[in-house]
Write a structure and sequence with these properties.
The structure holds 2 protein chains of 2 kinds. Chain A has helices at 23-33, 92-99, 113-118, 130-134, 137-140, 147-157, 165-171, 173-177, 185-189, 196-209, 215-226; strands at 2-7, 10-15, 53-56, 59-62, 73-75, 82-84, 87-88. By secondary structure, chain A is of the alpha+beta class. In chain A, the strands form 2 sheets. Chain A has a 5-stranded mixed β-sheet with strand order 2-1-5-3-4. A two-stranded antiparallel ribbon of chain A has the order 6-7. In chain A, helix 2 packs across helix 6 (147-157). Classes of the chains: A alpha+beta, B alpha/beta.
Chain lengths: 227, 534
């Protein structure tokens, strides 16, 4: 089969001798036997290290976990600086620092199975950035914290061991939970079936308990008052 | 000069970083990729601690099981240290926020793994390593610990046997840089990638830290002990966790017959499967169907997903075709009881790259996560002792710059190292695999020596400076060749069978080999020595 791979300003066509194959295996085949200059990221081959996320025909996927077909177009993630071919500069560290997604103040408390189940999915995140690449808000607001960093904030806010939920809630107000348009693109592409859109909705509920209101709604009412 | 340079950003490196920070040390963690892409994410089953939350257990039993599995070549005092500290390790992880599963009475849940006399492995579904690693990562961000991504380790900087830092290739710029430090911790992971296409390991597990210690004059030991995991997917070598058998999965052959107690230690189960495949011409399968779809999805969501993608089967309805492949490397950098590298000063090794003599000839499931966290914490106490600045010559940096330049300048070569690497992986699986013979090991050794003597015939095609993964993979291949030579030489010397090292002509343990083969480089020659177990 033939696939088309984005290489900076141009695209390159490669032929690989497989009928059914994961994208990662095809990329390794190209690198090993056709073109050692082709550059991409990967490590675990089994969908847990988050290194190999790219786009096939515009859709975010893990190269190791996705089969390809002839004619597929392979591109790097969006809203990341492309360093070379499919390799991008990762944004996780900055975004997680923005959302301060970690346990702030530990308290000793009984944790139940139910507590763990509540954020079981959220803590499955492998930081592949697929959701970030799929998020249209980043097209208009590059400072948006983005889906995975908000999901992770939610995971810690719901942890019964957290003794200062408010601090995290405070840190995800600006360029955070209210900037999301709830389009659900993030949830659609997550290889771990995490639902950041739902997490952001729930975070809004949590924030309202601390007295935060939707700033869009506030602007709206302010405007209508003026009219 | 910073206080502590930690090379490697998996569970061991991040734990050491956090713990060094707790000691108020200035710490820098360097990663060849990204922290959350490390091999630790792939640890699935659990982390051992004799909490007795599910079945009755004791630290003494944990110690006893670990000693038994190590087949006499472990250091009992190290095993005791790790097993006794295990409950503290779990508590420390719990305080960071690791989402361990819970029992009905709200204790940390535990499951049975092979070779354990009680349900001892604390777990977070089958994502235990992933969730521990990510929680450690979040905690490092909280503590504002600097993690430098995409720096590839070239060489330790050593003067008069004192390690004063390391040189790196900055992958982003292609420049060689040095980082100087009062203490250096190597936490670079194992060397399983040598079994290319026949290992559960990440492609990055190329033993770079071990190779750098060798080049610096430090010692490595027990390199022939490589654990084969019984259940990797047949066509992709992707791991299906031992928890699948811990939860009640069966191993069956083509006739649908069970042929082994599934929960015996990994070396025994792997050999039984190998025998079914190679002697009795059977296919071997993991059967999880009787566990039911709901239970599978609840306890092993990752396994179900992996089976579907890589084998095209649904384990709730179908048998899973499997084979044993290389999984964990017990050998590594030889360290003393303070984890300092044998032959070097101010340099420590933790995690899979280190041979802290806990696993001996065969590691128990759930003991590797325990080791990386427990000894990652322990090493920090050593790091704060006797910290001082050193003067460092710039000769090391110059030498490594010239070396990288020489790789770029080499144009005439006719061999493709990727092909050699794949070929070597297959040969290692066949000749230095589950069952070994001296005649085959010698063939493999000749092959490696051939490759090493024709190194001028291989090189890089990509001549760009920035993000040159062709260059990184080439350097990794050179590391693999150095380590591979020692694996084979050590395996040839050990004319017995012990734990994961099984020699067909010498099927029993022989007390003359109760100890470790150490290897090091002196005057440009590879030297070795046998050292009896403690």
């Amino acid at each position: 089969m033939e696939i088309l791979i984005s290489r900076g300003e141009r695209e390159q066509r490669y032929r690989v001798p497989f009928k059914s194959v994961t994208l990662l295996k095809a990329l390794y085949h190209i690198k090993s036997y056709q073109d050692p200059t082709l550059t991409f990221d990967s490590n675990c081959r089994s969908g847990v290290c988050g290194a190999c996320a790219v786009r096939i025909n515009g859709r975010e996927v893990l190269a190791c976990s996705s089969k390809i077909k002839s004619g597929d177009k392979i591109e790097p993630l969006k809203y990341h600086k492309v360093l070379k071919d499919l390799k991008v500069e990762r944004v996780e560290k900055d975004r997680l620092k923005n959302s301060t997604a970690w346990l702030k103040v530990y308290r000793k408390v009984e944790v139940t199975s139910k507590d763990v189940e509540l954020t079981e999915r959220q803590s499955d995140c492998i930081l592949c950035s697929s959701c970030y690449s799929a998020c249209p808000v980043l097209e208009v607001n590059p400072n948006f914290i983005g889906p995975f960093a908000l999901t992770r904030a939610y995971r810690y806010i719901l942890d019964p061991r957290e003794n200062n939920k408010k601090l995290t809630i405070d840190n995800i107000q600006s360029n955070g939970i209210w900037d999301c348009t709830l389009c659900g693109e993030c949830s659609a592409v997550c290889p771990q079936n995490i639902d950041p859109k739902m997490d952001i909705l729930k975070l809004r509920g949590e924030a309202s308990q601390f007295g935060y209101l939707d700033p869009n709604f506030m602007n709206l009412s302010f405007n209508s008052y003026n009219i | 000069m910073i206080d502590v340079l930690i090379i490697g950003s998996g569970g061991a490196g991040l734990t050491a970083g956090l713990s060094a920070k707790e000691q108020n040390l200035e710490v820098l963690i360097v990663s060849k990729s990204y922290a959350t892409s490390s091999q630790t994410t792939m640890a699935q089953g659990g982390i051992n601690s004799a909490l007795g939350n599910v079945t009755s257990d004791s630290v003494e039993l944990h110690i006893k099981d670990t000693i038994k599995s190590s087949h006499g070549i472990s250091d009992i005092s190290m095993i005791e240290r790790v097993c006794k500290n295990a409950p503290n390790t779990i508590e420390w992880l719990d305080r960071l926020g690791v989402p361990f599963n819970r029992t009905k009475d709200n204790k940390i849940a535990q499951r049975g793994l092979g070779g354990a006399s009680s349900k001892r492995a604390c777990y977070a579904q089958d994502y235990t390593g992933l969730k521990i690693l990510h929680t450690l990562y979040d905690s490092c961000l909280r503590e504002n610990i600097t993690i430098v991504d995409e720096y590839f380790l070239l060489n330790l900087i050593v003067e008069d046997k004192i390690v004063k830092g390391a040189t790196f290739l900055n992958i982003r710029t292609g420049q060689v840089e040095q980082i100087l430090a009062k203490k250096v911790v190597i936490a670079t992971g194992g060397y399983g990638a040598i079994y290319k296409n026949y290992t559960t390991n990440a492609t990055n597990s190329t033993g770079d830290g071990i190779a750098s210690v060798l080049r610096a004059g430090g010692r490595v030991s027990d390199m022939e002990f490589i654990q084969f995991h019984p259940t990797a997917l047949k066509h992709s070598s992707i791991l299906i966790s031992e928890s699948a058998r811990g939860e009640g999965g069966y191993l069956v052959n083509s006739n649908g017959e069970r042929f082994i107690d599934e929960l015996l230690p990994r070396d025994v189960v792997s050999r039984a499967i190998y025998e079914q495949i190679n002697t009795f011409n059977q296919d071997v399968y993991l059967d999880l169907r009787h566990l039911g779809r709901d239970r599978l999805l609840k306890l092993m969501p990752q396994e179900v997903h992996l089976c579907k993608i890589h084998e095209g089967i649904d384990p709730a309805d179908e048998l899973i075709p499997i084979k044993p492949v290389a999984h964990y490397t017990m050998g590594g950098i030889d360290v003393n009881s303070n984890l300092e590298v044998n032959g070097l000063k101010n340099c420590y090794a933790i995690g899979e790259c280190s041979n802290a003599k806990i696993h001996g000839a065969n590691r128990l499931g759930g003991n590797s996560l325990l080791e990386i966290i427990t000894l990652g914490r322990f090493v920090a106490k050593e790091l704060s002792k006797d910290l001082r600045d050193y003067s460092v010559s710039d000769i090391h940096l110059k030498r490594d710059r010239e070396y990288i330049e020489s790789i770029f300048n080499k144009d005439s070569f006719d061999k493709n190292f990727y092909q050699l690497e794949a070929n070597l992986g297959e040969k290692f699986y066949k000749y230095a695999g589950i069952k070994r013979e001296n005649s085959q090991l010698n063939i493999l050794l000749n092959k490696i020596e051939d490759m090493k003597s024709s190194i001028n015939n291989i090189g890089i095609v990509d001549k760009s400076r920035e993000y040159n993964s062709n260059l990184i993979e080439f350097l990794q291949f050179l590391n693999i060749l150095d380590i591979g030579e020692i694996i084979v030489k050590s395996a040839i010397k050990r004319d017995e069978s012990r734990g994961a090292h099984h020699k067909i002509d010498y099927p029993k343990e022989d007390n003359r080999y109760l100890g470790s083969f150490l290897f090091w480089i002196e005057d440009n020659k590879l030297k070795s020595q046998f050292k009896g177990a403690k």
